Every structure is written in C-alpha cells, then in structure tokens.
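Why does residue order matter? Because the sequence determines the fold. Keep that principle in mind as you read this record.
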Amino acid sequence: MSFTGGAEALLSGLVSTNLKLQANAVEALFLSSGATASGALVTSGATETVYAGGTALATTVSAGGSLVVSSGGTASGTVLHGGSLVVASGGTEFGLGMTSGSATVLAGGVFVVSGTQAVSAPQFSGGTEIIEAGAILSAPHSPAAASPN
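Structure:
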C-alpha cells in the first residue's frame, strides 16, 4: 500500500501489519476500538494514536516520531529509538524498551513492567522516563524477583 500524504484510520476488526509512518506519506495512524496495528515504524514527523479499544503491538518509534496511547488504548512492546511515547490517563503501555527518546506517563496512565524487567529496571539504555503524580508504575510479582537467593 502506498500513500502520498494524509492519515490512515483503522476501525473495529481491522489489522495493519508493518506500516511505515513518515512525513509526507502516512503521517498519522488512528486505531479505534477493535483495531490492531502490529510492527508499525513511526518516523520523523509522524504520529500513531491508539484510542479506546485499539491496540498497538511492537511499534518502533524513531527520532521525531511519536506514539500516543489515549484513554482505553493499549500499546505493547513499544521500542523508542529517539521518538516519544505519551501514555494518557486511562491508557496502558506494556513492556517498553528505549535506547533514546522520552516516555511520559500522565496521571491516570498505566506503565506495566513485566517479565525479567521486574527484577531490575525497564530495558532502557538511554532516554528519559517521566512518571507524573497519579500515574501507575506496575511491576507484577515474580517469584524469581522475590527470592533472596
């Protein structure tokens, strides 16, 4: 699929796989209830927005791009390479990885650290994480993490 500009909206039940979002092409992707985008690449000048009931899986956000998870939206496996992630009140991000960029969880947003990340820290090698007052940072109980040995 080729675009020369504008936005793509995925409605209930639709799935997009490996879509590249960039300035002067698909500049915006909107995911509504029941829609899923998997493996999207969001580049400079582009934004992916996940609305209530929408799901973004394994999104890569490079410098100048952004992913916004609105109330009721879910993102999982996001990787930031210079881009930005904003989790709004009521939105949820599971398992973020970041080499550079910024992740902001607004009051009422949920950031879930899972798996081995619960033992130490999220998988960040650079960048900035901002958790506002009222936001939730959740690290599920892991028997390995609780073990004194």
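The chain has a mean pLDDT of 75.
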